[in-house]
């Protein structure tokens, strides 16, 4: 008989814990072993999250024509349709079934320079306000998590606050919808193909529908995929390639994907990158004589360019 899949018990970090050192230890273990963990008491109001999901659902439930009217623009904001992002892993597969909507900060205080696209106010009167409010709250939660991450790396808790990371942080919200009309047994079908995130940190909220999986050892064959289950009220946090590099690979940016489960699935990803002007180098606390830096210093804007993301994130305007 085949062995039952092992239940993946990712660490749960309480952001409101008075014992910040213990929380930081738990984060360190999570980032070294899994690159993924949950946060609770993260400060993002449950009611706000419910509104974000409700607004997201009503956007994606529109006819394709209305969604395509807000097709992703040259600043990488707006709608992408199912199967628009092709990948080659499975010849014969149609690609990724997910449809997405990208939102960045709304320019300056008067919303000048706002390169976002917004659904028509007559039909979506609260949409922009709810999304901007989530953007602000998620960034605040991200900063609290990064303060514990700094402690977990033997740095000052204010490290990321004082070194320029948040001068003009690049923070992008991505709404996702995985259509429910396919199942994992349909050959080669995938909701989101295996990838690691490029940035520093990703905060992920889901509607509780399963499908998210991680692969802890990317070089192992065959790959072993483990389900990330839902914990009510929590956010899922994962480390991106940039923080893996910055920590000299002490922290892991882990492969993940979304498999179809024959049910509609909604999620909201929030990607955080540092300011484009910041130059990062492998943190001293992550290097030693026996474990020298694996990467030279790099300016974030150059990193984004290297990863093909500079136009994506319209440096300086997000
Ligand atoms: O939808 C999910 O649960 C994961 C989304 C994701 O990995 C991403 O947007 O980078
Ligand atoms: Fe991801």
UniProtKB/TrEMBL annotation:
SUPFAM superfamilies xrefs: Clavaminate synthase-like
Alphabetical list of Pfam families matching this protein: 2OG-FeII_Oxy, DIOX_N
InterPro entries: DIOX_N, IPNS-like_FE2OG_OXY, IPNS-like_sf, Oxoglu/Fe-dep_dioxygenase_dom
A GO molecular function held by the record: dioxygenase activity
Coiled coil: none
Domain Fe2OG dioxygenase per the UniProt entry, residue ranges: 169-274
Alphabetically ordered keywords of this record: Iron, Metal-binding, Oxidoreductase
Family: Belongs to the iron/ascorbate-dependent oxidoreductase family.
PANTHER family: FE2OG DIOXYGENASE DOMAIN-CONTAINING PROTEIN, OXIDOREDUCTASE, 2OG-FE II OXYGENASE FAMILY PROTEIN
Name under which the protein is recorded: Fe2OG dioxygenase domain-containing protein
């Amino acid at each position: 008989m085949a062995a039952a899949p092992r239940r993946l018990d990712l660490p749960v970090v309480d952001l409101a814990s008075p014992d910040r050192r213990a929380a930081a230890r738990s984060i360190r273990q999570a980032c070294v072993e899994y690159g993924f963990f949950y946060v609770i008491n993260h400060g993002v109001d449950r009611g706000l999250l419910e509104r974000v999901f409700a607004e997201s659902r009503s956007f994606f439930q529109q006819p394709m024509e209305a969604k395509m009217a807000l097709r992703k623009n040259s600043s990488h904001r707006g709608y992408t349709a199912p199967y628009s992002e092709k990948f080659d892993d499975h010849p014969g597969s149609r690609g990724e079934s997910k449809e997405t909507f990208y939102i960045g900060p709304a320019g300056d205080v008067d919303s000048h320079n706002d390169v976002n696209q917004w659904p028509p106010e007559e039909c979506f009167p609260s949409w922009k306000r709810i999304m901007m409010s989530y953007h602000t709250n998620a960034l605040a939660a991200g900063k609290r998590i990064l303060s514990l991450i700094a402690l977990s790396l033997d740095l000052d808790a204010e490290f990321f606050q004082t070194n320029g990371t948040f001068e003009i942080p690049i923070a992008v919200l991505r709404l996702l919808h995985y259509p429910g009309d396919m199942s994992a047994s349909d050959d080669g079908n995938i909701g989101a193909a295996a990838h690691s995130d490029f940035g520093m940190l990703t905060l992920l909220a889901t509607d509780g529908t399963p499908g998210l999986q991680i692969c802890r050892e990317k070089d192992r064959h065959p790959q072993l995929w483990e389900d990330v289950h839902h914990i009510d009220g929590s956010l899922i946090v994962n480390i991106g390639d940039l923080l893996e590099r910055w920590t000299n690979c002490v922290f892991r940016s882990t492969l993940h994907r979304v498999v179809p489960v024959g049910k509609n699935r909604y999620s909201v990803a929030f990607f955080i990158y540092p300011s484009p002007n910041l130059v990062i180098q492998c943190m001293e606390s992550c290097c030693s004589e026996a474990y020298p830096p694996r990467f030279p210093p790099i300016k974030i804007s150059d990193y984004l360019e290297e990863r093909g993301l500079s136009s994506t994130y319209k440096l300086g305007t997000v």
